[in-house]
Amino acid sequence: LLTVDTTRLGPVVSPQLGGIFFEDINHSGEGGLYAELVNNRSFMAAATPLHWSTVGGATFAVDTAQPLNQALTQSLRVTAAAAGDGVANEGFWGIPVRPSTTYRASLHVKSPSLTGRLTVAIVGTDGTVHATATTGALTGSWREHELTLRTGPGAPTTLNARLVVTAPAAGTLWLSQLSLFPPTYKGRRNGLRVDLMEKLAALRPAFLRFPGGNYLEGNVIADRFDWKKTIGPVEQRPGHRNSAWGYWSTDGLGLPEYLQMTEDLGCVPLLCVYAGYSLQGAHVTGDALKPFVQDALDQIEYITGPATSTWGARRAADGHPAPFPLTHVEIGNEDWFDRSGSYEERYAAFHDAIKARYPALKLIATTPVTSRPYDLIDEHYYQSPSAFQAGSHKYDGRDRSGPKVFVGEWAAQEGRPTPDLDAALGDASWLAGLIRNSDQVLMECYAPLFSHVNDNTWATNLIAYSGLASYNSPSYYAQQMLRTHRGTVVLPTEVRALPGLNVVTTHDPAARRIYVAAVNTSGTARRTAVSLKGVARTAPYGTVTVLAAADRKATNTLANPDAVVPHSRSVSGISPTFTATFAPYSVTVLEVRTI
Ligand code: AHR
């Protein structure tokens, strides 16, 4: 029996409960959400031209003697033996080609000896030229060239292509910051991938936690997300080693782009500031911590300050005069790993400085501290599907007087690169528990969000993609269902004699909707009476949305993206007491209209 008591209200559902967490892991940013198609565009990734090759009889080398500027201290020296010689970039596992598509290319070039123009083309690995354009005249000192490349209607949809740059004659030239963008979300310059942003927008996130995770910290301090090196024109950003996840970051996806992303998704930033601890154990204390605290204050000013403030002016120069809304700042990440115990001191230093200048900001601690208060504590959970299915009730018995919780990373781990239905049932059970307890758990976000199918370093991720296509996991759909079919207040719900069923019911009094979300983790259909205690009348029809499959190991893939997707239908026979059946291995949301 399932009894929903509408006469007693449970907790108000935290309006900021559901967010997303982005960090550059599994090529989530570089080669992923960040739409740049050229891999190692600035030649800063190594002392050799990684991801580049020669064309024809050309020779090439990374050159530190001809920097573009003080940020991009390496360029590519190319010596062509004849016209048509040059270099090619392999992209991130191929350059995606689509018919009738316009690409924006740009490159910095100099050549004291060559006259004429370079040819820039997207060329299939079979030699077919899909799109081509030429630069302006070459010059002896650095000059930026911008080009438009357009594929024809007959172009294939393929990743079997490279970006090829060729010289007009024999001679030597230098290249720097060589970039190629396809159309981006909302047409932003230096923007983000359309399909992936659409998937994020459809989750209707309340906030974006960024930029990590381990990516924030780096293995060593020099590899942290050093935000001041991620603002301004992209050719002024040196980039950094993403040592946590094993590849180069150009920082083209920098602080301004993360903030624009929040605005484009209609959510607010949840900023994680580097707090003087990196993954291999380096930790900063005493006076040495002061510059890092100042960096955090400056970062908050960049985000929230008026355009007349020092850092607000930099944001305005980066194209966004209006401040961004900021309510929460997280100090560090997973500082329970810091065995030195320095977090107590580090948190206190950041707390005191931030609260003194921004008293309204809510601060999130990553592990408990005693000398200073915190508004939220960030808890992370990576567990098995069965542990998450059982964990639906973890917060039910929580001491309500304790600190409020931000579950900033969580996932039932089974399946790669994305979770299977079994994991989704765990995730939905767990999320039902978070919603039920959203007087305690004020915010949550699943992790990680993305994996490139060719770099699945972290096994289980919400969304996966190649350079051409992307798909949502069953867990994505389960979370989307529980987010978008949800009221504003929890209704106490009693579940009797229904083993394996995890339920949360919410009510939207303004819309007169009751949402019964039920996760059936068992392989047996559960048929039960649903009693809406205190409801006098309902509309006779309701809507039911179901995510289910006969096999709990069922999953989605690039080749079969719709194997496990939700289906909605209208159901009749709804009344204050009605009968419902919950399919085996399913997530179901029943929407009832009260009259
Ligand atoms: O989400 C993947 C990693 O898990 C994060 O970078 C880190 O915070 C956690 O350990």
TrEMBL record:
<protein>
    <recommendedName>
        <fullName>non-reducing end alpha-L-arabinofuranosidase</fullName>
        <ecNumber>3.2.1.55</ecNumber>
    </recommendedName>
</protein>
<comment type="similarity">
    <text>Belongs to the glycosyl hydrolase 51 family.</text>
</comment>
<keyword id="KW-0325">Glycoprotein</keyword>
<keyword id="KW-0732">Signal</keyword>
<feature type="domain" description="Alpha-L-arabinofuranosidase C-terminal">
    <location>
        <begin position="408"/>
        <end position="586"/>
    </location>
</feature>
<keyword id="KW-1015">Disulfide bond</keyword>
<keyword id="KW-0378">Hydrolase</keyword>
